[in-house]
Amino acid sequence: MPELHFKGKEYVYNHHLNVPFRPLLAQPDKSIGEDSGNLIIHGDNLHALKALLPRYAGKVDCIFIDPPYNTGNENLCYNDNVNSPIMREWLNSNPVNREDMLRHDKWLAMMWPRLKLLYELLDEDGLLFISIDDNEASRLQIIVEEIFGDDSLLGRFIWKSRQNKDNRNINGLSNDHEYILIVGKLIAGETRANDSYSNPDADPRGPWASGNMVGLASQEDRPNLHYDLIDPNTNTNYGCPARGWRYEKSTMDRLISENCILWPVLVTGRPREKTFLAEMSEHTNISSIINFPIFTRDGTDSFERIMGTREFAFPKPPELIEFLIRQHPKNDALILDSFAGSATTAHSVLAQNAKDGGIRKFILVECEDYADTLTAERVRRVINGYEFQGTQKEELYREKITWTNFSKEGPHHKLLQHVQSIENLDGLCFETIKKEIKDGELIVTGENKITKRVAGLGGGFTFYTLGEPLEIDKILTGETLPDYQTLGAWLFHTATGQPLKVEQTDAGCWYLGASDSYHVWLIYRPDLDFLKSREAALTLSLAEQIGNAYKDKPHLVFAPAKYVPNKMLLPLGVEHAPLPFALYRMEKD
């Protein structure tokens, strides 16, 4: 298997093991609804992922992350506090920009420990989706295979993220796409995406989905695909898109006669076709090309409708994340996004649940200061509903523009007169008449400002921050005395490598829960006097009580002290783990 070497790799290779455990502290005033199982965490995502391990190791079904693309224009600062001189030197040269010759190494050093923790959190049948572009796609693929395994990379989706060409690149190439790396065992394909089909009009042909009919060819290449599409029932002319239609006229007429065309209410919309589930092969592999017309700007528009601002750069559209969510078969999947940003993932989970009746849960992690005011606030508005102030548009005229329009013999004066007549006739119906030339077409649009209420999707979440690092030695001085559940979850995971099932815990009898190999116990109260007393010791009578409680596997008992030799504990199937050793020494003194 190929291995990628980058500067600093030896220092971050096992850095995830040295990240301190920090408890999650609930913030009720920033939470909403009942305890729904949804989490929004404000804090460094490396520390937050470590904090999630005791409860969620190996239990996350689906992960989507949209990390920084490392374009050199993001002014990123990497501050993982890796204990090495070379890494500290790098930190002194933050932020990272295009002139930084080590920016790719720094990006990899940032991603490596986070991917290692995501690997520990992901269920063995889970799916990980990573959004990326050409800046780091090739390097990311190699470290993903190194961490998750040589056969773990299923492939990549190619998403046409840009609708219009980007003319800023001096190399003459417009980068109109992004990638989504797919990591796991199996992608769902059409079999698992059937929940996108429904039958709202009781069509006797069964469930159907809305399909795009816009073509891909210019009029010069495929003139037979360029014609006006007219609804025969209303005589509404929906015109012809710049790339024509997917079907020639005779096929389109057949689809119209078979009632397979979905006509939009507004003339500005595009007619679409019904694609019936019965006509789809059950075992059809899903295409690696995401070809539905959802673009980055749709994510921006969605965010603006909810938040009333465009201050967040390039948020992903909810429809894209919903598509990814549907690739996992479980409708009760736990979905994690550790680069939460604008909270598109939480929005998508709630929206998909509303569509198919699912009970999926989400965990978001956001390190920036806007975690409450932007990330969580968007989710609050999606849950409760929000006022939408926007612009309602109606296309009034569209004409392909050529040089002939402006030649001496051309009809440019008639064209201008026609536009003027539209302004005179429709000016009273619209606040603004907008005229623009786009992709070789003159488009005249009427616009009105509108305000409406969007209903909430329901649900709730608990907002968390990260507590101070839990350092076991500080229990001795009383500086750190976590609650039973927090300490127990950390010790259980540290000892067994498995998450603690909270429902098994019974602090009254010191029982934490069962792993594959042990029953685990913790004698502890967040009280320094108790921890230094004889009550906190493992005695023979308590050991016998523990040994008799369960006979199917050995017992591991965390306790500050013990008053019975190991040779008496072993026959009982009991093993003592000092908590911590310094307390035991103090008790002996």
Write a structural description.
By secondary structure, the chain is α/β, with parallel strands linked by helices. The chain has 4 domains: 282 residues, Rossmann fold (3-Layer(aba) Sandwich), CATH 3.40.50; 92 residues, no CATH class; 67 residues; 119 residues, no CATH class. It is built from 18 helices and 22 strands. A 10-stranded mixed β-sheet has the order 1-16-2-12-11-3-4-6-5-10, with helices on both faces. A 4-stranded mixed β-sheet has the order 17-18-20-22. A hairpin with a 4-residue loop joins strand 17 and strand 18. Helix 5 packs parallel to helix 6 and helix 10 crosses helix 11.
Q: How would you sum up this structure in a few lines?
A:
By secondary structure, this protein is α/β, with parallel strands linked by helices.
Short descriptors:
10-stranded mixed β-sheet, 18 helices, Rossmann fold, disordered C terminus, elongated, 589 residues, alpha/beta, 4-stranded mixed β-sheet, 4 domains
pLDDT averaged over residues: 84
CATH architecture tag of the largest domain: 3-Layer(aba) Sandwich
Rounded to the nearest angstrom, the radius of gyration is: 30 Å
Distance between the termini: 55 Å
CATH third-tier fold name of the largest domain: Rossmann fold
Uncertain runs with pLDDT below 50, 5 residues or more?
189-193, 582-589
- Spatial ordering of strands, largest sheet: 1-16-2-12-11-3-4-6-5-10
Q: What is the β-strand count?
A: 22
Beta fraction of the residues?
Answer: 15-25%
CATH class of the largest domain: Alpha Beta
Kindly report the name of the CATH homologous superfamily of the largest domain.
Vaccinia Virus protein VP39
Helix content: 25-40%
The coarse overall form would be: elongated
Sheet with the most strands, sense and barrel status: 10 strands, mixed
User: Which structural class do you get from the secondary structure elements?
Assistant: alpha/beta
- Number of self-contained structural domains: 4
Number of helical segments?
Answer: 18
